[in-house]
Design a protein that fits this description.
Length: 471
């Protein structure tokens, strides 16, 4: 076993352990450290036993075990914990050493840490990692952001441990300082939207059509073999096939309809607002989780507030096809919103984000991996400065073909009193974006009326104000 490690990994929760095992399996020697000594001992004597994994129980020993320039990867909870780890390791690092934050840190914190460490002549890479525990072990999608020269130090490791699609790693340099964590945040925002759309498709089939879990499993399994092929559709089909061991009911039906969240969807929505970018479906997905969380309040309201009956009387097979088409079209809108957020950030923070490259590294290892990411990559390869994904000929054609069924799903859901906030907001986003004329002139007139905020005219250039009470 080598005496010096190629990389050090600080933080041995399951993600950290799996990354260490992944790195070791690709031929790298890994030093490990955890704030709790027992966790290091258990891992070293358990899964890591006999592997090229070096346990350390003191920070100095951990740092001393690394080849120069040192590469330290932090896998701890975002926020204060990251700063505490950096503070602890700093005394044992030298000029040119590299710290990598592989957690779900807020991109603004990553920008701040990049500047602070640069002042100390240390390198820093804020790295988004997607794929969950399995991805960490078998190959995640990796989104590193920071100094490009710093990335070169970690590139040989990252490109080997990342998921591989068509012989190419799902890892690529994203951009300066916080770009990597920003792109991971947007990934999670898209994930929120995609999950909510699938949730609504499932709930429509269950409630409006009265389909069994087995029938819904068959639908999702079929969809996964076509245009909707994706990790999330795949696991939805699998979930619908599982039985509860205690009741023999479908397991999903035994789970309380109360969704939790860790905050990245909120960050993505807030960033869109800060940048002035429309991302309503991503935001609606966040709000839908918030509404689901007030379960007791909803139960009480269900006894007080009435609505229409929620059973669909038409052809069920045709409506399932309509749900499929609505899901595909709305999914395109969610990705369009995500890529629009990244374009806005590139302008705001002077990041050279490459959308086609980002789509490529999302094709494997991550939660939103989907077959149509190849189509997204192709779209941006054709036109790197594409204003909106919906304007690409391929996606434009899909939406045009799906539009009638999409409207049918949203309209029918409203008539049945079934909430479909993601389907609805995506359709409104599409209708707003395709409209050369909106009613915003009334808003601007109102603003000028009560606050003298001025307005522009359609017939001549300039800024104007009207004394509305005198005309």
């Amino acid at each position: 076993m080598a005496k010096e490690a190629d990389i050090g990994l600080w933080g041995l929760a399951v993600m950290g352990q799996n990354l260490a095992m992944n790195m070791e399996s690709k031929g790298f020697t890994v030093a490990i450290f955890n704030r709790t000594r027992k966790k290091t001992e258990d891992f070293a004597e358990g899964r890591a036993k006999g592997k090229n994994i070096i346990p350390a129980y003191e920070v100095k020993d951990f740092a001393d075990s690394l080849t120069r320039p040192r590469k330290v990867m932090i896998m701890v909870k975002a926020g204060e914990a990251v700063d505490m780890v950096i503070e602890q390791i700093l005394p044992y690092l030298e000029k040119g050493d590299l710290i990598i934050d592989g957690g779900n840190s807020y991109f603004g914190d990553t920008i701040k840490r990049s500047r602070q460490l640069k002042a100390k002549e240390l390198l820093f890479i804020g790295t988004g990692i997607s794929g969950g525990e399995e991805g960490a072990l078998k190959g995640p999608s990796i989104m590193p952001g920071g100094d490009k020269e710093a990335y070169k130090l970690i590139e040989p490791i990252f490109t080997k441990i990342a998921a591989q699609v068509e012989g190419r790693p799902c890892c690529s340099y994203i951009g300066d300082d916080g770009a990597g964590h920003f792109v991971k945040m947007v990934h999670n925002g898209i994930e929120y939207g995609d999950m909510q759309l699938i949730c609504e498709a499932y709930y429509l089939m269950k409630t409006a059509l009265g389909l069994t879990a087995e029938q819904m499993h068959d639908n999702f399994a079929k969809w996964n073999k076509g245009d909707l092929n994706s990790y999330l559709i795949e696991i939805t089909a699998d979930i619908l096939s599982k039985k509860d061991s205690e009741t023999s009911n479908p397991l999903v039906e035994m789970i309380l309809d109360k969704a939790e969240q860790k905050g990245t969807g909120v960050w993505a929505s807030k960033s869109a607002l800060d940048l002035g970018v429309a991302a309503p479906t991503i935001a609606e997905a966040v709000f839908a989780r918030s509404v689901s969380a007030i379960k007791e309040e909803r139960l009480a309201a269900s006894k007080e507030l009435n609505g229409p009956g929620n059973k669909y009387a038409g052809n069920k097979t045709e409506f399932v096809k309509a749900i499929h088409d609505a899901l595909y079209a709305a999914k395109i809108c969610v990705y369009s919103q995500g890529f629009a957020i990244m374009a806005g950030a590139a302008r705001e923070y002077s990041w050279d984000l490459q959308p086609g490259q980002i789509a490529a590294i999302w094709r494997g290892g991550c939660i939103i991996k989907a077959g149509f990411l190849d189509r997204i990559k192709d779209a941006y390869d054709r036109k790197n400065d594409l204003a909106n994904l919906m304007l690409d000929s391929y996606f434009k054609d899909i939406i045009e073909k799906s539009q009638s069924n999409w409207r049918k799903v949203v309209g029918t859901s409203a008539q049945l009193g079934i909430a479909v906030p993601a389907f609805s907001s995506a359709l409104s986003y599409f209708d707003s974006y395709r409209s050369g004329q909106l009613g915003a002139n009334m808003i601007q007139a109102q603003r000028d009326y009560f606050g003298a905020h001025n307005y522009e005219r359609i017939d001549k250039k300039g800024v104007f104000h009207t004394d509305w009470l005198r005309i």
